[in-house]
Amino acid sequence: MVKSTIIARVVDGLPLAASMDDEQAESELAGYKSQAKAIFKKLNAQSEPMCSIESGPYYLHYMLGQGVCYLCICEKSFPRKLAFTYLDELAKEFSMSYGSEVDKTNLRPYAFIKFDTFIQKTKRIYEDSRTQQNLSKLNEDLRDVTQIMTKNMEDLLWRGDNLDRMNSASDHLRSQTEKFRKDARWLNLEAMYRKYGILAAVVLGLFLVIYLWSKFS
């Protein structure tokens, strides 16, 4: 299930809204919320638009839209597709309600805390992934979550990994793949020549001898 939700501005990590969690959840999730704030600090215009970050028994899923980051902390058993459908619903409503105010320079932290009402209402809908409504959402959502980048929190915080898009790496990988295909094709041809070339030359020579012998005999 969705344990907690935080919404922040991408440009500076300013928290805009969050779910009002009970004392037990606050105690259990304090460290993970600190990790969420560390993620906000790493975000920029080049960051992946959607990402899942593994941390202990939880996943921190985030989605970017119109300069805002929507992040939820979920149990690992909660379907990723449902988590991103949940974030998408929050993003649409938040954009309609506060989209024009997000870029104001005089905003205070949690300026839109009233959005918690919608967060709680939506979170209740998604509490049990096995309900018919949520099973329908899973089937209807065409989002391919296998293409969403997955990171490990330890790598992200302690080993200097970033959340930037992998475009340049993908381009390099594509060019290397094409080069590999061409090299493999050439090596296959060369291997075939080594394997059958001598035999083909012998057979061709034999046919030539037979042809000349039949012509001049």
TrEMBL record:
Membrane topology: Single-pass type IV membrane protein
TM spans (from-to): 196-214
Domain V-SNARE coiled-coil homology: 134-194
MF GO annotations: SNAP receptor activity
InterPro entries (alphabetical): Longin-like_dom_sf, Longin_dom, Sec22, V_SNARE_CC
Subcellular location, record wording: Endoplasmic reticulum membrane; Golgi apparatus membrane
Coarse class of the protein's main subcellular location: endoplasmic reticulum
One GO process term, biological-process aspect: endoplasmic reticulum to Golgi vesicle-mediated transport
GO cellular component: endoplasmic reticulum membrane; Golgi membrane
Protein origin, superkingdom: Eukaryota
Any one Pfam family match given in the protein's UniProt record, by short name: Synaptobrevin
Matches recorded under Gene3D superfamilies: 1.20.5.110, Longin domain
PROSITE patterns per record: LONGIN (PS50859), V_SNARE (PS50892)
Longin domain residues: 6-119
Entry keyword annotation includes Endoplasmic reticulum: yes
Keywords of the record: Coiled coil, Endoplasmic reticulum, ER-Golgi transport, Golgi apparatus, Membrane, Protein transport, Receptor, Transmembrane, Transmembrane helix, Transport
Family stated for the protein in its record: Belongs to the synaptobrevin family.
Descriptive protein name: Protein transport protein SEC22
Lineage start: Eukaryota, Fungi, Fungi incertae sedis, Zoopagomycota, Kickxellomycotina
Gene: SEC22
